[in-house]
Amino acid sequence: MSEAKTLPSGPQPDVKYPIQVIYCGNCSLPIEYCEYHPEYEKCKQWLERNLPNEFEKFVKLSADVSEEDATEEKKRQKRGGKGIVKARKKEDGPKQVCLSRAPRGKKKSVTVVTGLSTFNIDLKVASKFFGTRFACGSSVTGDDEIVIQGDVKDDLFDIIPEKWPEIDEDSIEDLGDLKR
Ligand SMILES: [Zn+2]
Asked: Could you tell me the residue range of the domain that residue 57 belongs to?
C-alpha cells in the first residue's frame, strides 16, 4: 500500500477546497470507505446509479489495484469500449480428446482416440496402456491417433481421466460411430 508513505501536508495542488465528502447512499460511509463495507458490491451499484462520475473513478482505481475486483466492472464496461485491463492470456489451442467407434469387419469395431497429444501425452505410452488395460491390440496410427481393437469407448470416459487426471471428463468428446 502506498498509504504507508508520509502523507503530504498542507493544501494540495490537485485537490479542490473545501474538500467535499460524498457519502454513500448504501452504507452511509464516505464513498472512499465503501470498499471496506461488507456490502461493497451494493455500494458500487448505488454509486453507478447515483454518481456515475465517481463510479468511473472507482472502477479505474480498483482496476489498477486488483484485476480480480475489476473483472466484474470490465464485464459491465465492455460494451462501452472502456475496458482498461486487456483480456487475459488466450488459450493455446483447444485441448480435447475425441473418441469414436469405427467398424472393423462385419461384427467388430475399433475405438479411435484422438487428441491425447493436445495434453502432451506420449501416444506410445498411452497406446501401450490401453492395450494392457483392455487386453487387446492397440496402436498409434497417426500423428495424434490411437486405434484400439475392440469397442471400449464407454470405458474410456472413465479410464482416461483416471489415468491422466489433467484430462477432465468434459474435455472428452464422443464423436459417435465413424463410417468407413
Ligand atoms: Zn457504501
From this structure: 16-65
